[in-house]
Amino acid sequence: MLTNYIHKAMDNATYELLEDGTFYGEIEGLAGVYANAETLESCREQLQEVLEGWIILGLQFNHKLPVKDEWENL
């Protein structure tokens, strides 16, 4: 179930190419889950690492993981 959550969240990530030539990625609705890197692939990898850390920290503090409407069929 956790793996599905990560995959669904990553499927909803958005990326943009910044003026400095780096890539910025984020997952809307997940505060603090963003990444910036020199390549798109590196940005995706960093974003997933940030997401995983965000989930672990949230679970340690007994926070409920937000479930976006489109993710409800995990």
Question: Which descriptors would you attach to this protein?
Answer:
single chain, 16% strand, alpha+beta, Double Stranded RNA Binding Domain
Helix-strand layout with pairing:
Blueprint: H1 2-11, E1 14-17, E2 23-26, E3 34-37, H2 40-60
Antiparallel strand pairs: 1-2, 2-3
Q: Which topology does CATH recognise?
A: Double Stranded RNA Binding Domain
Percent range for helical residues? 40-55%
Q: Mean pLDDT across all residues, rounded?
A: 91
Query: What ranges have pLDDT less than 50 throughout 5 or more consecutive residues?
Result: none
Number of helices: 2
Question: How many beta-strand elements?
Answer: 3
Radius of gyration: 13 Å
Shape designation = elongated
| CATH architectural designation | 2-Layer Sandwich
Q: Please state the structural category.
A: alpha+beta
Strand order of the largest sheet: 1-2-3
Strand residue content: 15-25%
CATH class: Alpha Beta
For the terminal residues, how far apart are their CA atoms? 7 Å
Give the SSE order as H and E letters.
HEEEH
How many domains? 1
Biggest sheet features: 3 strands, antiparallel
